[in-house]
Structures are given as structure tokens and as C-alpha cells.
């Protein structure tokens, strides 16, 4: 039995195009096919442990698993680590409680691994390796499969963590079902999940350029800086940490708003210890530091 949908304001401007398309029958068939493919992928599994970050990908995966398999066969697990932004653990806890989704948190210790701390192009590999160290014992105890919210769009990015997870036995039902980010958000909206339009919140280490050693102090500095920028009304934010320089990224549509508040932004970030505050005029590009390791001409 499917868990009850979460109530959101479906009359909001952001939801209107999707609602109108559904009324016109333009995407209802596609959504049905997405739902069916994902259900078929999950029903092959008798029991799952979902790596639950609270973002739309893992949320849709956990919600769908709960609907397909039932609460006795699903456990959502959130990795509590130094690279998790403040408030994200509580977001996962409250979301799971709202849905009746069995949930727990586990500590991951990637910060103790020198291969992770050196912050090479394989940093993500060691992060996911630490995640699997934490998830696999839980899955073995429950005789379950570990599933991650990797989607089709992720396959074109530099994400060695996917390899680490696969090598350790994790499965990617969203990929098997052929779901990309757009279809995931549309299906989450269809279910009424509040996270359907939630900005991505990748780990804080992704704000530190490759080759700059990761430390708890740097991760906390990034976390405080992004919280400060969000305080000015920007929900989708990256603050790239270049030593004394903070490079702010917001969507292109919000660049003018950032410029209008530049004096306040500079004051807020210099108060946190940065000597220089810059705004990336190309706008927010998730994973753009990966350009340093992708072949010329690749796009992400």
C-alpha cells in the first residue's frame, strides 16, 4: 500500500506548468511509465537499505521503496559525517518520521582516511567507500540490498563514488528504471513530496578544489559561509573555498540579486574570515570543480 502523499501547495507558480501538462495528458503517460519501471526495479528486491541524503533522488527512491515493499522491508540510513551540512541530518530525520519511513543515522569516518584528506580526483571514491563500510553491515544483518539514489544524469559526471559503491555491491534502481533528474522531480511532485524542488546539497568537500587538503576546519568554514549566503534569500548556493577567497555561486537568474546585496554579502563572509569575496558570473554549476579532471569538451 502506498504511503499517504505529503501535502504541498500545488497551486504555486513553480508547480503550474507541471499541473497543466498533466491535465493536458502530455506527461501523465510518461510519469506512469516512470512509476512502473521504478516499481519493477524495486520489486525485484526483497529488502533494501536506502542511502538517504534527504535530496529529491534518495527521497523518491526511499518513498517508492516504502510503497512497493512496505515498512518492514525498507530502512533509510543517513550518513552523519563532517561533510554533511548543518541541518541536513535533522531534515532527514523529520522527513522519514513524516512518511512513516524506518530510519537511522550512522557515523562515517572518511575524514580519518589519508586518501580522502589529500583531496585528489578520487576523493569521492573514498567517501562512498566509507559510506559502504557503514551501510553493508546493516544490510547484511537485514539480508537487504544497499540502494543509492544515482540517476541517469549522474552517469555523465566525474563521480568515482559510483564505482566504489558498485564494487561494494550497491544497486542503482533509478538508473535501472531509466530516470533522469527531470523525471525524478516530476514524479516526486506527482506524489506530493515536499522535496520535489529542493536544491541539491552535495557534500561540503565538493566546494574545496582538488589538491587542497580537506580538513574539518575547511568543511565548517564552507558550511558557515553557505548558511550566511542563504540568509540573504538564496536557496541554491555554493561557496567555493580558495583559501582567503570565497567564490559565491548562485543561479544565473539570481546574479542581479546577489550584486544588489554585494556589500552585505562581503561583510558577512569577511566576518567569517575570508579576505576576498567574489561572485561567479557564470552562475551555479553543480560539480563545476570536476572540470579540472574531465576531458576537454566534456559537459556536466
Automatic annotation (TrEMBL):
Q: Where is the NAD/GMP synthase domain?
A: 45-101
The entry lists its GO molecular-function terms as: sulfurtransferase activity
Matching SUPFAM superfamilies, A to Z? Adenine nucleotide alpha hydrolases-like
The record, for InterPro entries, names: LarE, NAD/GMP_synthase, Ni-pincer_cofactor_biosynth, Rossmann-like_a/b/a_fold
Annotated GO biological processes are: purine nucleotide metabolic process
This protein's name = Unannotated protein
Query: What's the source species' lineage?
Result: unclassified sequences, metagenomes, ecological metagenomes
Amino acid at each position: 500500500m502506498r504511503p499517504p502523499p505529503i501535502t504541498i501547495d500545488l497551486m504555486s507558480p513553480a508547480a503550474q506548468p507541471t499541473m497543466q501538462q498533466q491535465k493536458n495528458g502530455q506527461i501523465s503517460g510518461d510519469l506512469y511509465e516512470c512509476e512502473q519501471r521504478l516499481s519493477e526495479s524495486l520489486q525485484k528486491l526483497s529488502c533494501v537499505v536506502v542511502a538517504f541524503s534527504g535530496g529529491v533522488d534518495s527521497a523518491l527512491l526511499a518513498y517508492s521503496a516504502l510503497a512497493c515493499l512496505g515498512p518492514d522491508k525498507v530502512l533509510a540510513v543517513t550518513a552523519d559525517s563532517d561533510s554533511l551540512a548543518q541541518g541536513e541530518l535533522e531534515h532527514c530525520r523529520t522527513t522519514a518520521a513524516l512518511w512513516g519511513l524506518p530510519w537511522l543515522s550512522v557515523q562515517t569516518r572518511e575524514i580519518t582516511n589519508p586518501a580522502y584528506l589529500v583531496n585528489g580526483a578520487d576523493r569521492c571514491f573514498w567517501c562512498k567507500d566509507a559510506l559502504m563500510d557503514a551501510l553493508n553491515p546493516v544490510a547484511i544483518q537485514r539480508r537487504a540490498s544497499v540502494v543509492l539514489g544515482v540517476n541517469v544524469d549522474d552517469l555523465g559526471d566525474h563521480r568515482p563514488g559510483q564505482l566504489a559503491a558498485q564494487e561494494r555491491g550497491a544497486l542503482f534502481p533509478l538508473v535501472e528504471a531509466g530516470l533522469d533528474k527531470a523525471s525524478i522531480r516530476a514524479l516526486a511532485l506527482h506524489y506530493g513530496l515536499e522535496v520535489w524542488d529542493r536544491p541539491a546539497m552535495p557534500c561540503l568537500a565538493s566546494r574545496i578544489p582538488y589538491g587542497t587538503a580537506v580538513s574539518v576546519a575547511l568543511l565548517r568554514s564552507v558550511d558557515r559561509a553557505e548558511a550566511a549566503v542563504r540568509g540573504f534569500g538564496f536557496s541554491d548556493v555554493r561557496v567555493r573555498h580558495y583559501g582567503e577567497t570565497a567564490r559565491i555561486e548562485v543561479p544565473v537568474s539570481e546574479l542581479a540579486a546577489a550584486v544588489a546585496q554585494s556589500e552585505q554579502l562581503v561583510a558577512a563572509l569577511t566576518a567569517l574570515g575570508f579576505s576576498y569575496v567574489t561572485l561567479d558570473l557564470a552562475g551555479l554549476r553543480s560539480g563545476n570543480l570536476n572540470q579540472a579532471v574531465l576531458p576537454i569538451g566534456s559537459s556536466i
